Amino acid sequence: xxxxxxxxxxxxxxxxxxxxxxxxxxxxxxxxxxxxxxxxxxxxxxxxxxxxxxxxxxxxxxxxxxxxxxxxxxxxxxxxxxxxxxxxxxxxxxxxxxxxxxxxxxxxxxxxxxxxxxxxxxxxxxxxxxxxxxxxxxxxxxxxxxxxxxxxxxxxxxxxxxxxxxxxxxxxxxxxxxxxxxxxxxxxxxxxxxxxxxxxxxxxxxxxxxxxxxxxxxxxxxxxxxxxxxxxxxxxxxxxxxxxxxxxxxxxxxxxxxxxxxxxxxxxxxxxxxxxxxxxxxxxxxxxxxxxx
Length: 293
Description:
3-stranded mixed beta sheet; elongated
């Protein structure tokens, strides 16, 4: 129980710090963006604003997802994390539509003049530093606890590093009078965000539709194939529920062995799978082996 509490506290803590970081970055970028009229910085501000919404969703998701199974949620609440990741994807797409529209409008009309000052560079550099630290922290905890919500949040912040770097390059060009570089930098940001949105969205939808995670299935198959006490197996089913993985299968054993011996085989298979699959629940049905029809 203490381990579970510590797990929840660590996930909630890293998610909460991400909310604070997103608030600081969004506010800073908005102030500098409006004062300089830089579309690159304003697009980054909008990106960070939606990151703030995503971080709040993530904070809620990680607090709910680790609730134990109950009468109405027999498999637990893990899919709240997958739903959270999908919501973050939709928010990222909204960001892209605005950035692309505004950047194309400025390039067509020629209204690309911006005011580049020291604060333009400070806000972008500070953003890169904060985004890097948050991305590393979120990624570490996401891997440790197999959390898709935290993984999505980490990807948000790591994307911000690349997009902020592009905006920084645009500001450097703009400082030499090449103002068109700013909306072009914003378009590149949008392309990066679209790609990340696709990756996040596909993974979230796959989990919500109970698509079997291919890597996990291959791991389990290799374990079953290597077990000499199992004559054959079938109906292997694997699905993800947030940080949890649920596995079901039928295994065949030598006919005539005792119930205790058959149970020992299934227990050993279960323990072997849990060595390779983090936070895994395994259900095994045992059958005496018969010739295949």
